[in-house]
Amino acid sequence: MEILKSISSKKKVGIIGAGPAGLCAAVRSQQCGHDVTVFEQTSKVGGIWVYTPEVNVHTSITNIPKEIMQFGGFPFPDMDNSRRSFVPSEFVLKYLEEFAKPVLSNILFCHKVVDVERHENLWQVQVHKLDDNQNPELTTFKFDVLFVCNGHHSKPMMPEFYEKYHKPWIHSHDYRSASKFNDQTVAIIGASFSGMDILDQLARAAKKVYLLDDKAIKFDSLLPENVLVKPRLKDATPDSLILSDDTSLSDIDTIIYCTGYVYNFPFFNSGNPLVEVLHNGKIVSKLFEHVAHVDYLNSLFFIGLHVTSTFFMIEYQVRFALALAANYTKGFNEEDVKDWEQKRLE
Fold first, then answer.
1. Dihedral sign from CA coordinates of 52, 56, 62, 66
2. Which residue among 3, 91, 171, 212 has the highest number of C-beta atoms inside a 10 angstrom radius?
3. In this entry, which stretches build a coiled coil (predicted)?
4. Which domains does the chain have, with CATH numbers?
5. Among 311, 320, 210, 303, which Cα is nearest to 14's?
6. Is the dihedral of CA 6, 8, 14, 18 positive or negative?
7. 202-231, pLDDT tens digit by residue?
């Protein structure tokens, strides 16, 4: 960061979100000598690592080793003298709270960004203070550089036909504990990270668990006896699920959709959106290397969009963005950037 600090002219940097990505952007921007303001719509730092009834952290243990869940120069402390790699989620939150201390005074808590526009070569950000019911007016801030770090675990991705099914269902976003499903027959839709985490817990509580995912069939023999792997979900009726092999399931008490999330940027003007969410909510365009907006390479950055964005990856995305903001990058031009984005979408 010393090299970037030595060549960076002081800029006003705005950051949307105080989760891991936003905190990293704030700390590194401050270290480069920039004037930093962070907008966080909740009352705490940490993003998805803060457990509340509205925000989901449904497992007590991380599924990524702490060695790649740490930022440069700020190692994970051995909080319980166990030297284990997979730590409880509350350890991660404590780590983030410690990491955030240098920028806590720069964070505006309970401030929700409602609109972002480009105006006179600056980013104009309109913000609503959520805990001020007496003053519904918006406050406007202007920045040279804007980091979008609002996360991507708030808007669940659902199959088009999910409303056809009239029996109980939830999305993994709302899952809290396996005890709610004691002695039930449960169908888990999807076998990615959240699906397998929840399956591990439900197999010990539910009477029977269906796991609907073509990729999981090869693991069938390794799963508990009360777990039955089935083909992917194709359609639904009011009281049954139709699978891709045209068989159906009708003995289900509850469905848990572990189908991931769609990217969502509600603060961008819908009449003139700066980004497009394509491929059923799975790709954000127009971004170079998934980070820098192709039309504003030096001033608009998106951090942590990868599904498995470790702190290690976030760190390097932030450093790349700050290098672009300081014009400290070589080896590509505007045509190369747009060509890269076009090939990504093909």
1. negative
2. 212
3. none
4. 2-154+261-345 (3.50.50.60), 162-257 (3.50.50.60)
5. 303
6. negative
7. 999 999 999 999 888 777 778 999 999 999
